[in-house]
Amino acid sequence: xxxxxxxxxxxxxGCEAAWQAAERGCAVELYExxxxxxxPAHESEMLGELVCSNSLRSNAPDSAVGLLKEEMRxxxxxxxxxxxxxxxxxxxxxxxxxxxxxxxxxxxxxxxxRITVIRKEVNELPETSAPVILATGxxxxxxxxxxxxxxxxTQHLAFYDAIAPIVAADSLNMAVIYRKSRWDDDTPGxxxxxxxxxxxxxxxxxxxxxxxxVPLKAFEEPKxxxxxxxxxxxxxxxxxxLRFGPMxxxxxxxxxxxxxxxxxxxxxxxxxxxxxxxxxxFQTKLTYAEQKRVFRTIPGLEQxxxxxxxxxxRNTFICAPELLDNSLQxxxxxxxxxxxxLSGVEGYVESAAMGLLAGIxxxxxxxxxxxxxxxxxxxxxxLIHHLTASDPKHFQPSNVNFGLFPPLPQKMRxxxxxxYRAELALKLLEEWKGGW
Length: 436
Description:
- By secondary structure, the chain is an alpha+beta fold.
- 32% of the residues lie in helices and 17% in strands.
- It has twelve helices and 17 strands.
- The chain has helices spanning 12-23, 64-74, 78-85, 98-111, 142-152, 198-210, 231-236, 288-295, 320-323, 348-366, 379-389, 414-434; strands spanning 4-8, 27-32, 55-58, 87-88, 93-96, 115-119, 132-134, 157-163, 166-168, 178-179, 191-196, 263-269, 276-279, 306-308, 311-317, 329-330, 333-338.
- The radius of gyration is 22 Å and the shape is globular.
């Protein structure tokens, strides 16, 4: 087989797949439809554009997503390398300056001698004997989705992913807002906190509960991902739901008074300069006018200038347990790999991780090498197991979490479980690599 690979989609998964394949000697054609056409959520011409949060979540090595990051680093992940080079302060999380992040990814793709970036929309699966990686993302076009459905013969699934607003830092009322990371008493912290009294919280909940949302089209059925619920959907589940979710005050006592607020809205730096801040966990489908009216009642945001307002968009993914094997190839069409959120994972890091595995496997296929999935005890292997071994009737996309891993061999304290799993996973990963 020719050592040539076609990749459709220049997001995180597509760029990671291209890098992995090219670094293994393959000639890669990377197709990206921007700027000829933009999805409803994209604005920039650059590759790897982040359209939701700028956070890649926890960096803690004993967390599931922190472990996934470390596994990817050990497999020479481009996404991890660029993320760390463009990081902004975010406590124990890894967050990036999204403009610099996308610019560096775009430049890396353009300068790699074995990667050719082709700015062209691909509307159907190509007929070729060379491996193809489809990484068109959660907003795969109707034409490509139709082409994919002709192959699978199954109905695609969709859920709705909401985007959080961003505010200008110089429009914040710092006389009210204080800087502190949860449980961090020794340093100022990386998060800005808007404290609420019980009366302020109740007034906010009443206002949010009555606010107008963007109506769905007649043919749309909301299937929200539990890890990224719109704030108004959480609000509708109960008056105190937000206090136990994104507005949880635990560990955020005021550094001057020592008093813990009734509720807190946290802001995180959106860029390296700290000129813009993301409302953490405030993804929303409120109308633009209602977002400004409701969110400006949050203490410290009375005069907030909204750099970007929240929105909602459809995510598309396949029923992976029915359609994919453990190399991420389509069962009905070997040589066609799926990567990113389209494959059935959720989250930036998970999407890039599936791109990493698809790129490695496609490269190995061109060389006639075996494609052995990572062990289930690794974060990468746990995601593959979720995609291929879940019950197809109840399959839903998932972030990486320790619930996807094999059971522990023995009972142990909760605080020791993450460390144990991480140590075991990295050992298994090195053994797996050694068998290539």
